[in-house]
Amino acid sequence: MEFKQFKEFSSEMIDYVGNYLENIRDRKVLSSVKPGYLRPQLPAEAPNDPENWKDVMLDVEKLIMPGVTHWHSPRFHAYFPTANSYPAMVADILSDSIACIGFSWISSPACTELEVVMMDWLAKMIGLPEIFLASAGQGGGGVIQGTASEATLVALLGAKARVLQQLKQANPTLVDADIVPKLVAYSSELSHSSVERAGLLGGVLLRALATDGEHKLRGDTLREAIIKDRADGLIPFFVVATLGTTSCCSFDRLDEIAEVGVDENIWVHVDAAYAGSAFVCPEYRHYTKGVELVDSFNFNPHKWLQVTFDCSAMWLKNPNHVINAFNVDPLYLKHELEGQMPDYRHWQIPLGRRFRSLKMWFVFRLIGVANLQKSIRKDINLALDFAKRVEEDPNFELFNEVTMGLVCFRIKGSNELNETLLKEINDRGKVYMVPSKVKGTFFLRMAICSRYTQIEDINFTWNEVQESGKAVLSKQ
Amino acid sequence: MEFKQFKEFSSEMIDYVGNYLENIRDRKVLSSVKPGYLRPQLPAEAPNDPENWKDVMLDVEKLIMPGVTHWHSPRFHAYFPTANSYPAMVADILSDSIACIGFSWISSPACTELEVVMMDWLAKMIGLPEIFLASAGQGGGGVIQGTASEATLVALLGAKARVLQQLKQANPTLVDADIVPKLVAYSSELSHSSVERAGLLGGVLLRALATDGEHKLRGDTLREAIIKDRADGLIPFFVVATLGTTSCCSFDRLDEIAEVGVDENIWVHVDAAYAGSAFVCPEYRHYTKGVELVDSFNFNPHKWLQVTFDCSAMWLKNPNHVINAFNVDPLYLKHELEGQMPDYRHWQIPLGRRFRSLKMWFVFRLIGVANLQKSIRKDINLALDFAKRVEEDPNFELFNEVTMGLVCFRIKGSNELNETLLKEINDRGKVYMVPSKVKGTFFLRMAICSRYTQIEDINFTWNEVQESGKAVLSKQ
């Protein structure tokens, strides 16, 4: 494909995607295709000769769109949001053309250096303590990971490397096999599935601890577990505190957990994947009390801060533990200027990495901090508005207090009734939600996910919920 | 940013990146900035109010481009290629606008289904046996991973899950801690650094085995290592065969290794990260002899097949071992139609994933198989042409036979002389290469990386090498 054709093709695509997004409210949010819908409509193999791009454009609407679940529809209330913004999309065009693989500073200095500065900008935007900023010169700094799952795994492996080093230094006769089977990590019972998976992948025991009446992990619970495990000969080394759980957006008591972490010499990692974006608004930063004591902190701008997937922001107070765990350097990756700037390949699981900081730079400059705050506050207010209606309707109740853009609610009655309600809502096909279950109680999750969501959409969704509620109650 | 502004901004960006790529030969391939060049030129924090996109465009050329190492310059010969093509870039615009997170079938059916079909198309394009195709209905299938590093780690963890299951089934009194410390994996001493890292991350011993005179791992070497390790009470469970090593593009003897794998019941994973793309040309498929016997196969279309990063293609004969190792399913991710199509979250380390199969679909349809073959053959012919000049010059010699787009060569003389030569070449700043060292011999790697590279560029590069050679010889 020549430049001229690329211009025509991309211009048509830009029109197409702009129209797609601006009119997304008109599309059915949840695809109604059946598994296996696509294969019969495609050739069995790739063509030998090039096709015309106009045919590909036609197939996008004809074959792909019917199978798309529209995450940016204002009627999409499932899971958590994923970001979408025009500045990020344009940045990705640039990133795709430079297409460098920034595994080391020398492999494309701008790729590393813009990331270092953008991670400092973002740390300031959410009020992280200076010790996490590269510009503070205290060894800390940020890195873009692909996902929060990877950030959790990286933190766990860094913590594992640290405890192995400490114990072997104290007792040089010890080898890894003496220590690893005794390692134990902790999280709240409501932490994300990726935390359990990080334990599996890291080959260590992960203990899911009970939460309090507000679904928060408390410091005393953690301390008791550590004391008991030490008494049983185990080696506690790592805890994940979740700020904004996926199940019900509860916040672990970071202030208490961080203190226990310091007292007991265990690595504290903060998973604020969803809620972290809200910390651009000072009024939500009270949830981060104690963060100056933690070892690593992570949240996903690709969820709620208008930077498209993937962009998971992670800060490490002392990256050397991770670097030591990951550093296996062949000659073809070494360069003369090592050590003066980070070589990010030592901070992550993959070797390759895209020029993702461009997305942050474009979004922060072209949207601005004030508008990012405004957007977060708009979403939270929409959630509070929906919550008010739940509370005012005698048939419905909230599962827990609404603090962010997620409303956990249920129809008064059994879990089975709520399962039927959810099925009714999604079968009607006008809005889309997923459920959760906490301590035996099944409920529905209504997340504000789209930047296009307005109060009319909340009216619409609430009407769908009420109508569905009436339908399931009448069938009882 | 509104749609109208997005159209203007993206239109200007499309012009900019097209001009950047079409004139990339004019830019200095290796950036000459010093570490820390960027921070003093940027504000200390993000702006509160939005800026004008025209200012951002100006800063791209002024601040970013001086720090870019131009991977798509025809004078870039370092590392291995990374892909770049117009169809893939347009596909990414679409992917960024749909911006679904395809962790399960229901979360966006088209995202999963196009990937299943594209992985079948690609398997056919490189001549993989039918057992790896989803359409064969034998349980096998493909998945897009982010990088070959992740694919290797996923394969290793799948193999670990399989051996644990087999041994615990045979002897129900065994627990993981009885087995894991005894596990041993193998690769060639020239396998990629990510293989060693997968061993580290997976918490198992990885043994790097000696290669033969042609730098290939042989079956007998593997068999002897397995026999010795078993005699020492260890449990061999996994081997990585590399097709096209990063060091010198040597090919392990897959035919022999696969046979040993079957005989000894160990999981064979093929890492063909770079060279795998060449298998679209039937004349290179002899390297894959034995592939019908392996458990997993991986290569990177994002290296040499015009699909932009990230797109690492992996096939598994029986994905259930990986699925069992990774499956930790909370209620909010479950859906009614599970099992009818893959839920790719169980096939990978992260939870989230982009709609990457669009890039494959656009590239395969708009470039076509014949042109992809032509492009591979062009690159290999350019490498062979360069190799011929090395052989014809009495001052230079090849390190090994050239079979793909990589020439490993040296100036006749000591390692130190070759280190000086490389420094001279890169300091002149007109072409960029990295070195490697195999069995004590230091040499230079000249990889054909850009789709713009033509014979004139090879003339240019060879001239740079000759001039640099004269300079270092005259200083001796």
From TrEMBL, chains A, B:
The keyword Lyase applies. One of its GO terms (cellular component) is cytoplasm. The keyword Lyase applies. The lineage of its organism: Eukaryota, Metazoa, Ecdysozoa, Arthropoda, Hexapoda. Gene3D superfamilies: Aspartate Aminotransferase, domain 1, dopa decarboxylase, N-terminal domain, Type I PLP-dependent aspartate aminotransferase-like (Major domain). Its cofactor is pyridoxal 5'-phosphate. Homodimer. Keywords: Catecholamine biosynthesis, Decarboxylase, Lyase, Pyridoxal phosphate. Belongs to the group II decarboxylase family. GO terms for biological process: amino acid metabolic process; carboxylic acid metabolic process; catecholamine biosynthetic process; serotonin biosynthetic process. It holds the Pfam family Pyridoxal_deC. Its EC number is 4.1.1.28. One of its GO terms (molecular function) is pyridoxal phosphate binding. It comes from the Eukaryota. The modification N6-(pyridoxal phosphate)lysine is found at K303. Signal peptide: none annotated. This is Aromatic-L-amino-acid decarboxylase. The gene is LOC112692959.
